[in-house]
User: Fold this.
Amino acid sequence: MSDHQNTEQSGTLSFNKWVIMFTLISGAFVAILNQTLLATALPHIIDDLQLEYNVAQWLQSIFMLVNGIMIPITAFLIGRFTTRGLFLTAMGLFAFGTVVAAISPNFTILMAGRVFQAAAAGIIMPLMQTILFLVFPKNERGTAMGMFGLVIAFAPAIGPSLSGWMVEHFPWRSLFYLILPIIVIDIVVAYFILKNVTKQTFPKLDIVSIILSTFGFGGLLYGFSAAGGEEGWGSTPVLISMAVGAVALTWFIFRQLKLKEPILEFRIFKYKIFTLTTILGMIVFLAMIGSMVILPLYMQDMLGFTAFESGLALLPGAATMGLMNPVTGRLFDKFGAKWLAIVGLTILTVTTFMFTNLTSETTFTYIAALNAVRMLGIAAVMMPVTTAGLNELPIDIIQHGTAMNNTMRQVAGAVGTALMVTILSNTSIPSQGIEGIVHGVNMTFFVAGVFSIIALVLSFFIYDPDRRAEKKGKHPKPAKA
Assistant:
């Protein structure tokens, strides 16, 4: 699809593109919210279904795994099916999984419901980003992605607190009944207002690639999540999973480079700004996910706060990030990503190192306030650099860019969690009491700070090809793969 065709589409949809965006964001919000909704509900599910903790934990892990396996093949699905057909199918699958989970009499049925939900969520996120890039012209994409960023910020933070309150007053199955009406309303609205904006290219189905993608990404994601959990890096399941994942992923990449119609186009890394911004996005997401895992552990295990209170401490940060994402999106449309990223990463670096002096006396207010400022920095980076990278791609391979971007973010989240938990356990000094364990927390933030410095240095290399061409008085050249 050419830029001219895209402009025409944007013009025909201009009267309802914001309604379309709201519909898409509603679906994405429920999908992301659902990922963290069971976090504080697990003890209640364990008691009700008579489960071991390590078995119940799979309700969280399976969502991340299936989600990560589905995302890489969304570029293929977007090329094969219509926009409306794929979105409505994904939301229908999500609704079905939610109903199955809500009425599940046992763990097996509940797991099946989570698998359906995760498969749908894996399709919804990249599809939504692709549609936004096709519906909105280049000078409005920052604003649109800023609204999308609002969802990414709010949903994960609200999940644990909301589920904590719900399961105190209602049965745990009420969590699924809570989101079901939103899903149904979204399906009805999407049926009437969503247009077919993606181009069907009917790529060939390469079964071998899908199998390799599943074992490659699935193996690595499971390996990292298990290593950050109870298994540890040296356990046999982790080593086997990592080895299988690494071999399958390498084979998958080489196969994609040889195929005329790859399932996931790795040649997009030839675009320098896309590659640079993808790396920056991974580092920032790693830093964000790490703190979301470490801070609750620190507050509950070392400071004696409840799960609900530790969730409340993260809420100002989520609110700050959510409210600032639309603002940074508009700033991106006016000024580009470079200086937003530099300012944001400077804030992130400073606040991350301020988290390296935590003690057993650190107050709730200090944690909540500093995390809020830290999230302000992340908001200035996350969506602007993502948009800048995707803007460099030709419109006909945007779906590969969004699939790759979401896949790399999943990998960064799994790696970040495993890395931070490992550093915490390896640098804690139990013999020195509570302060010795807090030392491990401080070291995790020190490592995150080092990553932030690397990202800050890389951010100086961001540039907008179109703006650079305008300054030189030239018309920007069309991108070539």
Remarks:
- Confidence is low (pLDDT under 50) at residues 1-15.
